[in-house]
Amino acid sequence: MTPADPTPVADIGFVGLGTMGRPMARRLLDAGHRVTVWNRSAAPVAELAALGAVPAASLQDAFARPVVLSMLADDDSIRRQVLDTGVLVDAECSVHVNMATVSTGCALELAAHHREHGIGYLAAPVLGRAEVAAAGALHILAAGDPQWIGRLEPLLLTLGRRVWRLGPEPERANAVKTAVNFMVANAIESISEACALVESFGVERALFTEVMTETVLPGPVYTTYGGLVASRTYQPAGFTARLGLKDVRLAQAAAAANNVPLPMAGLVHDALLQALAHGWGEQDWAVLSEVARTRAGFAARQ
Amino acid sequence: MTPADPTPVADIGFVGLGTMGRPMARRLLDAGHRVTVWNRSAAPVAELAALGAVPAASLQDAFARPVVLSMLADDDSIRRQVLDTGVLVDAECSVHVNMATVSTGCALELAAHHREHGIGYLAAPVLGRAEVAAAGALHILAAGDPQWIGRLEPLLLTLGRRVWRLGPEPERANAVKTAVNFMVANAIESISEACALVESFGVERALFTEVMTETVLPGPVYTTYGGLVASRTYQPAGFTARLGLKDVRLAQAAAAANNVPLPMAGLVHDALLQALAHGWGEQDWAVLSEVARTRAGFAARQ
Amino acid sequence: MTPADPTPVADIGFVGLGTMGRPMARRLLDAGHRVTVWNRSAAPVAELAALGAVPAASLQDAFARPVVLSMLADDDSIRRQVLDTGVLVDAECSVHVNMATVSTGCALELAAHHREHGIGYLAAPVLGRAEVAAAGALHILAAGDPQWIGRLEPLLLTLGRRVWRLGPEPERANAVKTAVNFMVANAIESISEACALVESFGVERALFTEVMTETVLPGPVYTTYGGLVASRTYQPAGFTARLGLKDVRLAQAAAAANNVPLPMAGLVHDALLQALAHGWGEQDWAVLSEVARTRAGFAARQ
Amino acid sequence: MTPADPTPVADIGFVGLGTMGRPMARRLLDAGHRVTVWNRSAAPVAELAALGAVPAASLQDAFARPVVLSMLADDDSIRRQVLDTGVLVDAECSVHVNMATVSTGCALELAAHHREHGIGYLAAPVLGRAEVAAAGALHILAAGDPQWIGRLEPLLLTLGRRVWRLGPEPERANAVKTAVNFMVANAIESISEACALVESFGVERALFTEVMTETVLPGPVYTTYGGLVASRTYQPAGFTARLGLKDVRLAQAAAAANNVPLPMAGLVHDALLQALAHGWGEQDWAVLSEVARTRAGFAARQ
User: Fold this and answer.
1) Which of A248, A259, A291, A294 is the mutation pick for testing D, counting most D CBs within 10 A?
2) In a shared domain, residues A120 and A191
3) Which chains touch B (3+ CB pairs under 8 A)?
4) B302 lies in a domain?
5) Boundary (domain end) residue, out of A151, A168, A185
6) Which residues of C touch A296 (CB under 8 A)?
């Protein structure tokens, strides 16, 4: 298949059946595509096979399909499972769409490797959690060869409600993803500090977050995290402090590579690290609010 | 008039006819109230008189109405025009509603002075700019004696779409106002840093802010300031860097009074101070984006 | 007396007999000067009178001597005791040397007031604590009319080992004093963070601070505070966290007046505020080390 | 050779003949030891051979001496030249003393590799530059098996004036080295901010740094960097901003591994990154002062 090939995509390799990968693969199956799935552990493969997927005989087998989508956890996973395995050397696919949140450095490295082996490479990280993926309502941040993006857009629209075209260099999509996550972290820290401030004056946290979201700061981030911060509910975690720290570090690494100081990232990094130091790493990153409360000595005051 | 008095409020003193005060006084007139207006300079008084307001013979005359609303610029203004003039000593009003953004410290001081002179005191700072005031669509953050708030709510609803009841201590309303403004400052800094990051990867700023507002961070703050930051438009200023710095300092002062560290406030304070140092004090506080670009040396790169 | 007057200074008014003022006044007496002392409370006056000082009949009496030295606690004290009392209006002194640590803003204001009343004004804050004052070994940071500084240097050398001439504008001396104190605060924070880091690796804090002071960071600040931080000894306080916070704020105010961002000041400010929030305000400001240990969750780890 | 072996050390492999390694190897030669030298490039080997060193036939040859000292540039160098080459597999040395500044993570990894291959491993990073090394006046921060340290101390005292014993885990020495460097960075930033503050009041920078070093902050760091900052001399660089940034990152990485927030490190990191963004990466890290001046807009003021 080449970017100009008019045939509808139908034969897909799908690598990485984690929390996000499973509902995404399922949507491809539901749309009638042939999906050859591969995962490091067996159970998710069986689950998808029961829904009509073809279990790949090997990772190489998955990379023998014309189009490969992957949704691996992070830089480490993709390094270990794609780069270190040498699967690209004899891969028969035409294009590989990496939908994971990886670093911009990893994106640059992957793009070079694929180029070397004559395989198209798109970065297409997504905004949205598992339930959004299941509903096909993800935002897909795509970057890479525009012809490939154009060619694959109908397929990607099976997975998301919108495909954002961010330019010809794949790492741009990862930069944008990481910048958005960074802004979410900043918003949580902002809510946390503001709540500590008003709490010190005796204002109910829930009343304050209602003012906030009903006036100038509406939307899912302020509503969701405002709610968690107001009620001091950090478990079960939608997204853990530990993963949040990892995301902030992606922003810091991307920025450092280009000599862009990000003061807020340093601040939020330290606050998340403090959360980990206090044993809150597996709690929702809204636990930043407890870090703000610790700073203000609220426990010591009572 | 006492809080229990069932008579509709109709005889109002209004002090401070600035950018916000004028449209507010006008709405009271339009609603049929008798409004006695006072302002340090004469022109706005004449403007309102032409619309049916009664020019006050003196500040004392304005404070002789049963209900006095004031919309003075800041702590300094209210100190000079209300505290230092001694107008409260012989004031005949029953209640004074201070709708300006003043410090929590000033609020505490004002509450004490009014109590001493037997006058009710409400803090009722607002969210919204002049055009919102003209449309009667402000959010009014009210705190003080709940009976007075209840009694005056119909009147306040002439000015705003919603009256938030934030508790019996007036300074709470000022704490909430200042906390919301602080969060807006944080959001602008967050947009600025994120834009510097993606710009360093060659992503169009306007494309990034569109992703941001169409996905997880919608709403007026991100839309407005995202637009200004993307287009690097800082004039005419909706709200200047100089005023923004003043607001951040209100948050810092309120927090310091209660021993609440606010790391983000320190960071945004320094960024705004840098804006002033570069001669950008009268530009819109979205100019925080240029501070982020200076840090990243974008001018030096070209 | 004028700056050109060749007569040795001998008739001195001394205002403010606190921890620093007492040993300073005593040194002037020991050197044979006539010292007319005034203090808000009576006990220190009696103490100095027993050593040969002349008790002033009033503040005005002290300001009737040709040379007045004052060592009041801070801006508030000097405002209440000098500006608000109107003592300058009929003061007969030729020159007033303000040796207290006041803000640069206060220095500007005082200089203007003295000029208005035809009185010379020098700022001469000092480096050194009470025992250093008793030994006449202070460093005196002097600024103001160079003729006056030249004229009074012999007198000042009774109090200190060296007079630094910092220029014709009095506020410069206060800027330098505040900058030095700010650097001391930074050094304590630096020691605190570094100790938290090595402690997390199991290195004895005292061993680390010995390495530090015996290699690249010798001197009284690192030795004194290294010792306190290593042994976690915060009482009795040589200088409290509360006073440290006040000094950091002087630096912030001086910097803000000139649009100079000081990121380290914001950071140390927040750390000291956290100390106050935890009830450590009256402990030595070396307690910054406990703030660093709190951030790192050392208590939670054990 | 074992730790108990009483024979004086005489047969040494020395790996890495850079700016620091050359004078160190030379001192060993001057003290009469047999030194087998190895370096990636040939010129320094020839230089040392002319002074009596034995050129190693290979890296393996150097690692065949009973005691190996190495002074490679950084983590990358030691990884590429020691770990990746597999030289440890058949190394005949009894102990390897790594005198380079590497990360604590790298130290842990190296310690494990040496243990696996039955080779003693000491971390012994040094404080002092090339001229200090030439004078044998380094401070040697040693950690690892205390028997080895005891055994090698006479040899190390050929290179330094003092051997600090920092405990049995090698990474502790690296933690201490990195913490000291971090404190030096903080001191330079502190000087830079303080100078910007006093400069804004018209105080001569050189006068201020003289006050600073002659009163409470003496010692080589404040004197050296005070001088550079006062005179705004950043070339030739004693230590570049780029290397300074690398060192700050070592502190951040060590701290992050143990969940220790270091706010000052974040701040100095961003300031150094800003220096790089402005093209000052190869200037002395005293150029932090220009970053402070940029923040304060001094260029824009003139």
Assistant:
1) A259
2) no
3) A, C, D
4) no
5) A168
6) 274, 277
For residue A299, the model assigns a pLDDT of: 84
Confidence (pLDDT) at A6: 39
CATH of residue B113's domain is: 3.40.50.720
Residues D183-188 have a mean pLDDT of 98
Q: CA–CA separation, C154 vs A14, rounded Å?
A: 87
Nearest to B277 among D277, D278, D297 (CB): D297
Q: Whole-angstrom Cα distance, residue B159 to residue B147?
A: 19
Residues D57 and D112 occupy one common structural domain? yes
| Domain span holding position A154 | 11-168
Indicate if D280 and D189 belong to the same structural domain.
Answer: yes
In angstroms, what separates the C-alpha of B230 from chain A's closest C-alpha?
14
Asked whether residue C123 falls in the same domain as residue C179, the answer is no
- Is residue C2 situated within a structural domain? no
How many CB atoms lie under 10 A from the CB of residue A69?
27
Q: Does residue B241 lie within any of the structural domains?
A: yes
Q: What's phi and psi for D170, nearest 5 deg?
A: -50, -40
The rounded mean pLDDT for chain C is 95
Could you tell me where the DSSP H helices lie in chain A? 21-30, 43-49, 59-62, 75-78, 104-116, 130-134, 146-156, 171-200, 205-214, 220-231, 241-257, 263-277, 288-295, 298-301
Over residues B222-240, mean pLDDT: 97
In this predicted structure, what is the pLDDT of residue C1? 52
D71-116 tens-digit pLDDT: 999 999 999 999 999 999 999 999 999 999 999 999 999 999 999 9
Peptide bond preceding A3 in cis form (omega within 30 of 0):
no
Catalytic residue numbers of A, as ranges: 177
pLDDT of residue D6: 40
User: Exposed, middle or buried by CB within 10 Å (0-12, 13-18, 19+), for A49?
Assistant: middle
Q: Shortest Cα distance from C178 to chain B (angstroms)?
A: 18
Same domain, A135 and A20: yes
pLDDT tens-place string over residues C190-211: 999 999 999 999 999 999 999 9
Mean pLDDT of D283-301: 95
> What CATH number should be reported for the domain holding residue B248?
1.10.1040.10
Assess whether pLDDT exceeds 60 at residue C297.
yes
Q: Is A297 an 8 Å CB contact of chain C?
A: yes
Radius of gyration of the CA atoms of chain C, in A: 21
Instruction: Give the residue from C210, C214, C209 showing the smallest Cα distance to C188.
Output: C209
A 142-171: CB under 8 A from B = 162, 164, 166-167, 169, 171
The mean pLDDT value for A225-234 works out to 98
A271 SS3 class? helix
- Give pLDDT, residue D1: 52
Same domain, yes or no: C85 and C191: no
B262 located within any domain? yes
For the stretch C205-242, pLDDT in tens is 999 999 999 999 999 999 999 999 999 999 999 999 99
SS3 assignment, position C127: strand
* pLDDT over 60 (residue C57): yes
Considering D114, D151, D172, D177, which one is annotated as catalytic? D177
Same domain, C285 and C179: yes
Asked if the C-beta of C262 comes within 8 angstroms of chain B's C-beta atoms, the answer is yes
Q: Which of A121, A144, A168 is the last residue of a domain?
A: A168
With the CA atoms of D250, D253, D257 and D258 taken in that order, what torsion angle do they form, in degrees rounded to the nearest 10? 70
Query: Which residue does chain A place closest to D271, by CA atoms?
Result: A261
pLDDT band at C189 (very low <50, low <70, confident <90, very high): very high
Q: Is the pLDDT of residue A116 over 60?
A: yes
B197 shares contact with chain D (CB less than 8 Å): no
Question: Looking at the structure, do residues B137 and B260 belong to the same domain, yes or no?
Answer: no
Alpha helices in chain D (DSSP H): 21-30, 43-49, 59-62, 75-78, 104-116, 130-134, 146-156, 171-200, 205-214, 220-231, 241-257, 263-277, 288-295, 298-301
Q: Which residue in this structure is represented by tokens 């009572």?
A: A302
Read off the tokens for D174. 């690296």
